[in-house]
Amino acid sequence: MDWDAVWERLAPAFAEIIERVRQVYPGIHAGATRAPLGYAKFAANAEFSHDVLAQEQEDLGPWFKCAPADAGTFSDPGGRKLFPDAGDRDAIGFWIERGSGFELATLDPVLLPLDEGSPAYRRAVLDFTDKAVEFIRHQTDLILDALKQPIEPRD
Q1: Cα Rg, the chain, nearest whole Å
Q2: pTM to 2 decimals?
Q3: 3-state SS class at 10
Q4: Domain range summary for the chain, segments of one domain joined by +
Q5: Phi, psi dihedrals of residue 23, rounded to the nearest 5°
Q6: What's the rounded Cα separation, in Å, for the pair 113 and 68?
Q7: How are beta strands 90-98 and 60-68 bridged, if at all?
Q8: For residues 55 and 96, what is the distance between their CA atoms, to the nearest angstrom?
Q9: Nearest CA to 31 among 13, 50, 18, 12?
Q10: Beta bridge mates, 34
Q11: pLDDT of 27-36, one tens digit each?
């Protein structure tokens, strides 16, 4: 799988949302990264955080990840695997979460074909990537609103 092709589709969408967030919150720290995360085949995210010293709002960011389907990434809030019979197959997902890990919005993850080198695997990854790009473009208001919400006190 050519993961550069995935990044070439995601990066402009991340740049658009970063630009919009910076227009509304000029002092926010924002950036996008593409980095391997241990077991992940591919991972990319954008991150938004306010001034750490006076932070009254929680960080948040969209995440895009492809990893083995049995990884903890692909489980429900109760910890049950979403793809319990996946074997050695990968899954791909996209979500927007707060720094606490609370998910604000999620695009349903997809179980990928077994052969990472196959045209079907590539097509499934690129189709999902295109859906993720559209998804994040429709979540701008949610992101802007979440960045203005005060941090909830924790017990």
Answers
A1: 16
A2: 0.88
A3: helix
A4: 3-49+58-79+87-147
A5: -65, -40
A6: 11
A7: antiparallel
A8: 20
A9: 18
A10: 44
A11: 888 999 997 7
Establish how many alpha carbons lie within 13 A of residue 153's alpha carbon, considering only the half-sphere containing its beta carbon. Answer: 1
Amino acid at 97: E
Please enumerate in sequence order all residues whose Cβ is within 8 A of that of 121, keeping only pairs 6 or more positions apart, or say none.
Answer: 1, 112, 113, 114, 115
Query: Degrees (nearest 5) of the Cα angle 60, 62, 68?
Result: 125
- Residue whose tokens read 């993850």: 109
How does pLDDT run across 114-134, given as a tens digit for each residue? 999 999 999 999 999 999 999
Whether residue 44 contacts residue 34, with contact meaning beta carbons closer than 8 Å, is answered with yes
How far apart CA 17 and CA 144 sit, in angstroms, is: 9
Q: Which residues are bridge partners to 51 per DSSP? A: none
Q: Strand order of the sheet with strand 60-68? A: 29-34, 42-49, 60-68, 90-98, 103-111
pLDDT band of 155, cuts 50, 70, 90: very low
Three-state secondary structure along 75-138? ECCCCCECCCCCCCCEEEEEEEEECCCCEEEEEEEEECCCCCCCHHHHHHHHHHHHHHHHHHHC
Integer Cα distance of 71 and 90 in angstroms: 9
Higher pLDDT, residue 148 or 44: 44
Vertex 85 angle, CA 96 and 105, to 5°:
10
